[in-house]
Design brief:
Blueprint: H1 6-23, H2 51-61, E1 68-70, E2 80-82, E3 89-90, H3 97-109, E4 117-118, H4 121-124, H5 130-135, E5 138-143, E6 165-169, E7 179-184, H6 185-190, E8 194-198, E9 200-202, E10 207-209, H7 219-229, E11 243-249, E12 271-273, H8 291-296, H9 303-310, E13 313-319
Antiparallel strand pairs: 1-2, 2-3, 4-8, 5-6, 5-7, 8-11, 9-10, 11-13, 12-13
Binding site for Fe cation: 258, 260
Cofactor: Fe(2+)
Keywords: Dioxygenase, Iron, Metal-binding, Oxidoreductase
Length: 322
C-alpha cells in the first residue's frame, strides 16, 4: 500500500475489511441450551490462498495459479509473490519443526522478560518469569507483603523499592487485609498479547523511544531475520534487525489489518514468522497443525508449552528501524 493514492487506499481498505469480516470467528446462535458449548459457525475457505498446496503443485507438476509467481533468487526454497501485491513475499516451510519449537519456547520464557515490555507493564510493571510462575501455579499479589507473612522472600518486605506486585504460592498468600489484589499467573499468561524486543516502541506516541532500556535481540534471531529478508533487500545490502514485536493470539483473538509505517525506511521489509494479521485461529484437530510439535514437546517439563500452543498462535515480526 506504500506509495498508492488515497482513493486506491480507501477501496483496498474496504475490500480488506470485507474479507476480514468474512473469515472472522463467529459462533452459531441457534444453540438451544446456554450450557451447551458454543460451536463455531462454518466458513467457506475455498478462496483462501493455500501456499502449502501451491508449493505441492509446483513440486509435482511445475504449475502455479494465475497471479502467483516465484521470485528468482539464490534461496534454498521457493519465494512466492502476488503479482497484484508488490512487496509481498511468502516463504512456505521457512522454519523447520525444531526451529518453530525453539522460537515458541523463547517467546514464552525469555522474550517477555524485562527490560522487554509487554501489555502487562501498564498495570503490573515489569513481570519476571511469568511462564515459570504459571507452570508452578503461582499467584501475582499486590499489597503489604510484611515480614513473617509466609511470603517466600520476606527480605523484600522492608525494601521500599521492591515491586508492589510479586509472585508467591497461593497457599502462602498473606492475610486478605495485607493483599489488595491477586491474579493467577496462568491467567496473566493467557492474557499476554505482546512483548517487544530490541528498540522499544512507545504505543501511546506511536514512535520508537531509543532512550528506553531494552534487551538485545538474540543473535540467532537476527541471523534468521537477515536470511528471510534477503530476497526482498536491494542487491548487496543486508537487513539489520533492530526491533521486534512478539504477538500472542489466544482462542477468539484477532489482529485486524493495519499499516506498519513507523520505520524510517519503508523499502526495508518487515520479516514476519507465522502470521501477523489474524482474523481467525483454527484450533480443531484437522486445522490446528500442531501434531508435528507434539513430539518435540513430549517431555514432562514441556507439557505447559504444548497445552499453550494447542489453542494459541505466536507471531514474531522483526523490523529495521533506521
Amino acid at each position: 500500500m506504500y506509495g498508492s493514492d488515497s482513493a486506491t487506499d480507501d477501496s483496498e481498505r474496504t475490500a480488506f475489511r470485507k474479507a476480514e469480516k468474512k473469515y472472522k470467528l463467529y459462533y452459531d446462535q441457534n444453540t438451544k441450551s446456554s450450557k451447551k458449548k458454543k460451536q463455531p459457525r462454518p466458513v467457506d475457505l475455498s478462496e483462501v490462498i493455500d501456499f502449502k498446496s501451491i508449493k505441492e503443485s509446483l513440486d509435482r507438476r511445475g504449475e502455479l495459479p494465475t497471479g502467483i509467481s516465484v521470485l528468482q533468487h539464490d534461496f534454498d526454497r521457493p519465494v512466492f509473490c502476488l503479482e497484484k501485491r508488490p512487496g509481498f513475499y511468502f516463504i512456505p516451510g521457512a522454519l523447520s519443526t525444531e526451529e518453530q519449537c525453539h522460537w515458541i519456547r523463547e517467546s514464552l520464557t525469555n522474550f517477555p522478560q524485562p527490560h522487554n515490555r509487554t501489555n502487562h507493564n501498564a498495570v503490573y510493571g515489569p513481570i519476571h518469569d511469568l511462564f515459570t510462575a504459571a507452570k508452578e501455579k503461582m499467584v501475582l499479589a499486590e499489597g503489604n507483603l510484611q515480614a513473617g507473612s509466609g511470603h517466600e522472600d520476606d527480605s523484600l518486605a522492608s525494601d521500599v523499592n521492591a515491586p508492589k506486585w510479586k509472585f508467591c504460592k497461593e497457599h502462602s498468600l498473606p492475610s486478605k487485609r495485607n493483599i489488595s489484589k491477586s491474579t493467577p499467573a496462568s491467567v496473566l499468561l493467557r492474557k499476554l498479547r505482546w512483548s517487544t524486543l530490541g528498540l522499544q516502541f512507545d504505543w501511546s506516541k506511536r514512535a520508537y523511544n531509543i532512550s528506553l532500556a531494552h534487551n538485545k535481540i538474540p543473535d540467532a534471531l537476527c541471523r534468521l531475520a537477515r536470511k528471510m529478508a534477503a530476497p526482498a533487500m536491494p542487491f548487496g545490502e543486508e537487513f539489520q534487525a533492530e526491533a521486534a514485536i512478539v504477538n500472542y493470539f489466544g482462542p477468539g483473538d484477532m489482529l485486524g489489518g493495519h499499516l506498519d509505517d513507523m520505520e524510517a525506511d519503508w523499502s526495508r521489509p518487515i520479516v514476519s514468522m507465522r502470521y501477523h494479521g489474524v482474523p481467525r485461529i483454527f484450533t480443531d484437530e484437522e486445522s490446528a497443525e500442531v501434531t508435528p510439535l507434539e513430539l518435540q514437546f513430549s517431555h514432562e517439563d514441556d507439557h505447559c508449552i504444548l497445552d499453550y500452543i494447542k489453542t494459541s498462535r505466536i507471531n514474531i515480526n522483526i523490523r529495521q528501524v533506521f
